[in-house]
Structure formats: structure tokens, C-alpha cells
Amino acid sequence: MDLYHKLEYNQIIQIIQGYCKTYLGKKLSFEMEPYFSFEKVRIALAKTMEATKLLYQKGRPPFAELNEMELPLKTLESNQILSAKSLLDLAQLLKISRELKSYFKEDILGSLANKSFEKGTSQEGESLLQDYFSTLYANPSIEKEIFDKILDENTISDNASPKLSSLRRSRKNLEQSIKDKLSSLIHSANYSKYLMEPVITIRNNRYVIPVKQEYRSSIQGFIHDISSSGSTVYLEPTSVFEANNQIASIRMEEDIEIEKILEQLTASLFEILAELNLNLSTIGTLDLLFAKARYAQSYNGVMPILNQEKKINLMKAKHPLIAPNDVVPIDISLGETYTSLIITGPNTGGKTVALKTTGLLLLMAYSGIPIPCHEESQICVFDHIFVDIGDEQNIQESLSTFSSHMLHIVQITEQVTSNSLILLDELGSGTDPVEGASLAISILEHFVKIGALVSCTTHYQELKEFALVTDGFENASFEFDVENLKPTYHLLVGIPGKSNAFEISKRLGLSPSIIERASSFIQQDHASIEEILKSIYEDKLTIEKQKEETQKNLNQIEVLRKSLEKDNSDLVQKRQQMIDDAKSEARDILFSAKEEANEIIKELNSEQLDVKRANQLRNKLNDKINEVNTPKIDFSGLIAKFDKNFETGKVSVVQDSKAKFISPEINVIGQTVDDAIYVIDKYLDNCVMSGISPIRIVHGKGTGKLRTGIHQYLNKHPHVKSFRVGTFGEGEMGVTVVELK
User: Fold this and answer.
1) How far lies 33's CA from each of 77, 289, 419, in Å?
2) Is the pTM of this model over 0.70?
3) Per-residue pLDDT reduced to its tens digit, 632-646
4) How far apart are CA 537 and CA 529, in angstroms?
5) Are 330 and 402 in contact (CB under 8 A)?
6) Residue 111's pLDDT is what?
7) DSSP letter assigned to residue 371
8) Which residues contact 490 (CB under 8 A, 6 or more apart)?
């Protein structure tokens, strides 16, 4: 197709063929054509992207080269017995199918299905390759049976059947017997002189010995062959004649048995003929899919965003056939604020490559091939892509360059629709410039009126001026480095190309007077427009450079923002860790203080205590309480005075007013272990001071984590005498009953 040739799509097909591992995939790639349907393109791209994900997750799928399968399958279909080679080929088909099914495991399927593809190209939970892999038919028993019974295309295993094994043992015994007899003969003193050499050989599947021509009648037997020189005859001695006959008979039986084995194996495959045919087509399809994915990997291809609004926005687009070190990314957009893009610039500056890049990337995407561009690029699906690129003068038909191009334009005007893309190179060239420019403007107006999108390259000043003042049209140009007299291949959208003829001529050394004289020929209004274009070009170029610098700064700011976010996250984590550590340390201090306080209280209550010692212990206890009375620790009680009967060792303790109304039950359901322990700890203190026991801690059943944490805490609490879970009617596993000391 001319479109594929002009946009070099055929070269993409050849490259993909090189990535295919089977002749099936190569054949399908040769027949590959783009889809011009939104849904088909969406699905085709999504399939390739899923294959790409599998490549990253699992590596390359286990494809292996297959011999041509069509003839064996047709033989099988006609119910004829397959040869050993054909059986091995079909067993290889089953083997590849089995290994591919194993490659696509459920865990991989799950990870793919749970991730909807970027930019809404795949339905959530959908795996587009699952059907292919699940369609593959595997039959390990038939596969193993064939490989076990057929060693290679010329050898059937001895163990292929009991009868074949028995026949071959018999034949080997007979062969050994013949060899023994002939060995005795050729090494005997009587016969050795008759032999050309003392060896045993085979002719016509019979064991013979090489006898000198002149002694051929000295040994009784049958001659089966004569050497080319005639000096040696190959003779079968009569002593082994019968044994050779038996071997020949056994060989015939072997052939019959082998035929039965092949027939039986063929019959097993005949039953799965439909599955084998389906395997063949499925493997070809998968091979091509993964070839596309591997090719896309080579240049980091992405899946563009598909829209149905007839818009193209290719960002950082690269021509895939230009070497990575040489290609210059370009941004091309159409359909947003303008429908026709007029590209100007010097020859060999990149104009034609820009058209080809646009068209080729669309054809690749329409074929399900990820494209080399920025991941936020957008494309739509046209119903036609028309191109007129290159000088195609037809000498045989006496068509000039202009006529050849115009024939293509005529064909386009007859087929174009409102959903078409048209790529035109040097529209209106090859004829009178004034007429050519006027014709080009009229043609472009016609296409825009129809509603098609157009990208056109030109050298005509009139087209640049027309695009400046006409809605729906936009200028673009390729930058030219006048200092070094070479193109930069940098496409500047919105900037009309300026003429560099005078500047280039000046730098090349042309006389200033000649250049000045040439300038005088330019009409004043044209010169003014050229100055305006020059001003626009320079202003836009400055803006573009400022934009690049701004983007660079924004990128640096984004990197800094992410770094600050990470630092802040680290600080929050450290702060939380410090709080957790402080809580833990405070709890340890509290437990230690309470144990010491209990010891002091015991000593105060003892009978043998004088007033001085009691005051010391009281002060020590109050100091300890003050020491741990922090915002994290709310300790409730101070020793205020001794009872007037302190000689008896009785001590009065001032209790918090709250302790007078202590409930024998506390509910900590829904709290964390740390929070619950903090609450229970205060509660136990109040219960001890109020003389309440037993008490009930309601923690709920739940997962049991809260109950376990509370029990671990109660195990080492100094006030706790014993505890147990509730019985029937008490709340069972959701309640812990505690006896206090």
C-alpha cells in the first residue's frame, strides 16, 4: 500500500518480524495492518501494554521455533498415519502450549487484573491476554508419550511397546551370534589369508565379510556386493545365512510394530485436532503480541491517551527509524485551536520528517504498537490517513513532479471525510510560484471546510501570511542555526519561518552590495511583512527559551518539594517514635514508683515504727509521688498526717474525692492496649484506696489482642492478687474478673 511505503510503515513490520520467535508470528506480522476503529485500537494497544507488563514481571515467554505445521495437520485431518517427524513436531506444539500456560500464572493474572491500565484504556479487573492463554490446550500425557516413544525422526525407542522391545532383544541376540561366528572365521588361520581385511560389515542389511576376488570360491556363501575396483567381494558365509534370514524376518516384524505405534500415536492426536489447530493460531497471535512489546521496550514506547475529539497532541515524539543519538524530539498538535498546521523551514531541516513522524506514529498506535513519545501524548483514531510526500516524477507516463502530486491531491479530494488526516509535503510546488501558492491556499481551505485535519510543509511566503490571518490555521517552523549554518531540527509551533537567504549569503561571503541590491527588489509591503515575521520569530524564540528555563526551574522545585515532603514525613515518624518511647519510659517509672510506695506503706503500717522514721518514710513517699506526677502520669494521693494512734502503726491516707464513687466495673472496649492500660492503672489505684475488690474489666471479645495485652499487664501489677476470664453470665471471654490485694 502506497501509504505504508511513504510513511515507512513497512520497515516497522520488518523490524517486528525480527522480534518474532516462530514462523507463525512472522507470518502474522507480514499481514499486519493498522485498525481505523477507536475500540479496536484501544484493545490492540491495551493487549500490547499487558504483554509489556508480563515481560517486566516474568521475562520473555517460552516461545520456541516450530517447524511448518500445516502439512502434518492436514495429514492428520485426512486420517493418515503421521511420520515420526510429524509426531515430534506436534508434540513440540503441545509442549510450547503447556509452557506458555505455565508462564501465565494466576498470580500474574491477578496482579494485572487488579491494576486498570493507565488513562482508562482497559476496564478495571480485565485481563485482555487471559483468553489467549486459557485457550491454549495442553496434554502432558500425550506429549510425554510421543517424546518417550520417538527419540528422533529416524529412531523409535526400544520401550515404545513390549513387542518391539522383545523383537529388538531377539534381533540383538542373533546379531551377536552372527558376529561371534564371523569373528571366529576371520581370525582363523585357515581363512584369514582369503580376506581383504579382518572386518565384519553389512550389505543389504546382512552381515558379510570382505573377501579377495581371487579367493571368492574358497569360502562358501553368497556375494552381495563388489568393490568399485573389483578386487573385493562382500560375501555372506553359509554358516550365518539362516541367522541373517531370521534377522530380516524380525526387521519386518519391527517395521509392522513401529507402524502400529505410529498409528496409535496418530489416533491420540486425531482426537484433539481442533485444539491443535487453535494452539497454532493462538501461539502465532501471542508471538506477534510479545514481538510488538519487545520492540516497544527497545525505545521505551508508551500507550498514548486515546480521545474521540479529533485531536492530536504528540509531545516529545521521536521517529522510531532514526538512531536514538540523532533523533530530535518534536511536539506536534492538531485539532485543539487549529485544524491546519503550516510548517516552514530550510531544506533538510526536518519538515518532511515531522510529517512522517506524525503519520508513522499513528499507524503504529493503530496497529497496537506503543509509540516513542511522552506518556501524556494524545491521539485520536481517523478513518483515513492521506499522504502526499516525495518527488514522484513518472517518466514513463510523462508526468511532471507537479502533475504527479496533483494526481494524489485529486484522489484525496475524492475520498476525504471530516474524520481524515492529510499530510502534504511541499503543497503546490513544481509550478509557477504565484499560481502554486494560490492553488495551495485554495486546496487547504477546501480540506478545512470539510473538517479534516491537515499538516502541510511549504516554502511559500503566501501560505505563512495566510495562516497568520486565517482562523483554523497555525504556523510552525524548524529553527535554523545561522551562526553555524545548520538546522537544529527543533520544531517551533506558532512561529512562522523567516527567510534566511540574505543572512546565509552574507555569512558565506557574498558581497554586501549584491545583497543590498537584492533587497531593493523586494516590494515594500512584502519587506514589512518579512520584518514582522522576523520580529515574531525572534520574540517567540525568546519566549520558548524562557519557557524551557521556567520548566527547568519548575522541575527543580518539584524535586525540592518531594524532598521536603520526605523530610517532613521522616520528622513526623521520629516525633511519634519519641512520644511512644516517652510513654513507655513514663509507664516504667510509674510502676517502679508505685512498687516503692507500696513498700513504704507496708513499713508505715508495721508495728515497730517510731515517729522519726515514719516522718522520713512519709517525706520519701511524697517526694516519689511528686517526682512521677507529670502530665503523662496522674497519681492521685498524698500522705497528709499520721493517725493520733500512730504508735499502733496506723496511717491515714487522703484519697481523691473521685475514689468515693468508684464503680466495681470499668469498660475499655475499643481502646488500644496502651490507652486501656493507662486507664486501668489509675482505676486499680482508686479501687485499692477505696477497698473495692473484686472488680470487672470489660474489654470485649474481638480479636483477643486487647484481652492479651491487659492480662500481660495484670500479671506483673503489684495490686493484683489474681484474675480470670468471666464465666457464663459474667461476660465470658469479653470480661476479666480481678481480685485485688
Assistant:
1) 31, 14, 19
2) no
3) 544 344 444 444 444
4) 12
5) no
6) 53
7) B
8) 328, 330, 478, 479
